[in-house]
C-alpha cells in the first residue's frame, strides 16, 4: 500500500514509520526536506496545483493529512493563516484525490473544554483559532466519498528537538529535567495523552477503513501537573523539578481546560484491529533514552 503523508513532523514521521514497518510504501510531503527521509516530496498543501501534482506523482492508495501549523499559540496569533493552512489545504487535497481514501488527523481543540467527556456525538465549539481552523478542515471532508476524521488528543513520545518547534509535553519535561531545570506544569489543564506509537498504529488501521469520525484519546484523563509527577516518579527525577503553574500563564493560556477525548467507537475499533492504547506510565518508558542528547 502506497500512502502519501502530508506533514513530515512529529506525528507524520511516526505514521510513515508504521506504514513502512507494515510492509507499505510511505511518502512524506512538506515544504522543507526532512533529513534522513528517503521518500519525500516538496509540497505546500495550500497550493491547489501543488496538491494535484503531488497526487499525480505519488499515485497513493491513501492519504493522511497531518500537516501543521500545530502550535496552538501561533494559531491564536495568526488565525487567518491557521485557517488557510488547515481548511484550504484540506480542500485542495480533497479536490486532488477524487475517490482516493483520506484520513485527516484533527484535534480535541474543536471542543470548548468545559466537559471532560467529548465523544463523537458531543457538539463542537472550538476552544481557539486552532480548533476553529481544524473544524473548518473537517467540514471539507463532507464532499469526499471515503474519508475519516481521526480526532486525536495530546500526542507525546520521543521527539527530536527542532528549531522553532516546541516538543511535546512529555519530551519537554524530560529534556528540561536532564538539564536540571524546573519545568512549569499547569495544575488546571487536563488531557487524555496518547503515545505517538499508538497514534501511528491507529492511523494506519484507519487508513484501511474506519468510521467517518473517530476519537482517539489515551485511557487516562490527567492534569499536566499530575502527569509530570507520574513521569518524574517513573523516570527517577525529583518532584522539585516540577513547577506548578495555572493555565492562564505562558503558552497554555489559549488551551481549553479539558483537552480530552472519549469515544463511543474506539473500543470496538481497537478490538477489531487488535490494538490497544497505552497509559501514561507505560508511555513514559523509553522516553529518557530517546530524548537524551
Ligand atoms: N501533536 C499533537 O499533539 C497533535 C494532536 C492532535 C492533532 N494533531 C494534528 O497533527 C498535525 C501535525 O502535528 P505534529 O505534532 O506532527 O506537527 P509538527 O511536528 O509541527 O509537523 C507539522 C508538519 O506539517 C508541515 N507543514 C506545515 N505547513 C504545511 C503546508 N502548508 N504544506 C505541507 N506541509 C506543511 C511541516 O513542515 P514544513 O513546515 O516544512 O512544511 C511539518 O512537517 C497538527 O497540525 C494537528 O493538526 C497533532
Low-confidence stretches: none
Q: What is the assigned CATH homologous superfamily?
A: NAD(P)-binding Rossmann-like Domain
What is the overall number of helices? 11
Number of E-type strands:
14
- Report the helical percentage: 25-40%
| Shape assignment | globular
How would you state the average pLDDT, rounded?
A: 95
Strand order of the biggest β-sheet: 3-2-1-4-5-6-11
Q: Which molecules are bound besides the chains?
A: NADP nicotinamide-adenine-dinucleotide phosphate
Tell me the name of the CATH class.
Answer: Alpha Beta
Any key phrases for this structure?
single chain; 293 residues; alpha/beta; Rossmann fold; seven-stranded parallel beta sheet; 14 strands; 18% strand; binds NADP nicotinamide-adenine-dinucleotide phosphate
What is the structure about, briefly put?
With 293 residues, this protein is of the alpha/beta class. Helix content is 39%, strand content 18%. The chain has one domain: Rossmann fold, CATH 3.40.50.
Care to describe what's here?
- The protein is of the alpha/beta class and 293 residues long.
- The protein has one domain: Rossmann fold (3-Layer(aba) Sandwich), CATH 3.40.50.
- Helix content is 39%, strand content 18%.
- It is built from 11 helices and 14 strands.
- The strands form 4 sheets. A 7-stranded parallel β-sheet has the order 3-2-1-4-5-6-11, with helices on both faces. The protein has a 3-stranded mixed β-sheet with strand order 12-9-14.
- The two termini are 35 Å apart.
- The mean pLDDT is 95.
- The site of NADP nicotinamide-adenine-dinucleotide phosphate has 27 residues, from α1, α4 and β5.
Amino acid at each position: 500500500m502506497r500512502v502519501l503523508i502530508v506533514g513530515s513532523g512529529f506525528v507524520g514521521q511516526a505514521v510513515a514509520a508504521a506504514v513502512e514497518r507494515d510492509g507499505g510504501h510511505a511518502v512524506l510531503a512538506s515544504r522543507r526536506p526532512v533529513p534522513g527521509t528517503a521518500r519525500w516530496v516538496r509540497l505546500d498543501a495550500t497550493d491547489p496545483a501543488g496538491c494535484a501534482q503531488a497526487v499525480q506523482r505519488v499515485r497513493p492508495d491513501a492519504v493522511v493529512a497531518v500537516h501543521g501549523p500545530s502550535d496552538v499559540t501561533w494559531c491564536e496569533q495568526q488565525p487567518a493563516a491557521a485557517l488557510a493552512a488547515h481548511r484550504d489545504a484540506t480542500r485542495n487535497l480533497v479536490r486532488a484525490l477524487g475517490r482516493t481514501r483520506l484520513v485527516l488527523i484533527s484535534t480535541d481543540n474543536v471542543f470548548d473544554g468545559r466537559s471532560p467527556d467529548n465523544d463523537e456525538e458531543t457538539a463542537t465549539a472550538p476552544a481557539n483559532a486552532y480548533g476553529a481552523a481544524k473544524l473548518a478542515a473537517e467540514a471539507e471532508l463532507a464532499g469526499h466519498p471515503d474519508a475519516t476524521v481521526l480526532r486525536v488528543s495530546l500526542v507525546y513520545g520521543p521527539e527530536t528537538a527542532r528549531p522553532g518547534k516546541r516538543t511535546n509535553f512529555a519530551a519537554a519535561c524530560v529534556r528540561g529535567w536532564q538539564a536540571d531545570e524546573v519545568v512549569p506544569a499547569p495544575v488546571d489543564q487536563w488531557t487524555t495523552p496518547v503515545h505517538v506509537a499508538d497514534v501511528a498504529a491507529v492511523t494506519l488501521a484507519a487508513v484501511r477503513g474506519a468510521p467517518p469520525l473517530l476519537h482517539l484519546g489515551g485511557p487516562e484523563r490527567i492534569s499536566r501537573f499530575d502527569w509530570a509527577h507520574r513521569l518524574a516518579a517513573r523516570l527517577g527525577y525529583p518532584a522539585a523539578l516540577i513547577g506548578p503553574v495555572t493555565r492562564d500563564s505562558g503558552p497554555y493560556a489559549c488551551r481549553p481546560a479539558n483537552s480530552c477525548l472519549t469515544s463511543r467507537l474506539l473500543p470496538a475499533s481497537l478490538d477489531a484491529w487488535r490494538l490497544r492504547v497505552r497509559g501514561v506510565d507505560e508511555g513514559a518508558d523509553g522516553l529518557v533514552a530517546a530524548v537524551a542528547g
